[in-house]
């Protein structure tokens, strides 16, 4: 009888432990948001999600995957309890999305020494501008009008697109472009991590020309867990700890960009 009770206790304990363990998926190759370093997942989205889940009492079994695969997992998969850093889908059928998790905010960034003034997209027509691959499709109709490919399929001579955003930032410091269009946190990350290789300490001006702010979300298989996560996310924001985690990856100087511009950082 004692043996049976012991086995029942052990099984109950093991079940409880298993119920507090979550399979969590993160993206890769997206610094400073989600990336792998020496076999470990790091980044703003990773640290925020892990901190919240730890506060909720969960242990995490994590796996990293490509951006394309992680989006498919959030929409259609059932392998993971939590999928971090994805576009928002519709709730239901075992998939529930958090409140906005991380904001992606694009700005025009130029070296202050260039003395550039830009109040609208059309002001960029005389500048050498750098952006990410296919950015002309992503940044609104005004940007599309100025920088979309010509009839021959070639981009305008004053516009360059980069496959690697590190190369985009290097081009700014090297003077190969007058200004670049980039998410503020990605720029902060490269400004900080490239500081030992190039002089990234020079002042920059930041212009807010892109009003649309995109967000990443966290997808859950359990609606109650989603609600608990959202509450803890809000506590993290209110306490200032959210911003402290962001500053780890973008540095103090560019931890926040104001909407009014230009602003020197």
UniProtKB/TrEMBL annotation:
PANTHER family: AMINO-ACID-BINDING PROTEIN YXEM-RELATED, MEMBRANE-BOUND LYTIC MUREIN TRANSGLYCOSYLASE F. Gene3D superfamilies: Periplasmic binding protein-like II. Residues 21-253 form the Solute-binding protein family 3/N-terminal domain. SUPFAM superfamilies: Periplasmic binding protein-like II. Keywords: Signal. The keyword Iron does not apply. Pfam families: SBP_bac_3. This is ABC transporter solute-binding protein-amino acid transport. The keyword Secreted does not apply. InterPro entries: Solute-binding_3/MltF_N. It comes from the Bacteria.
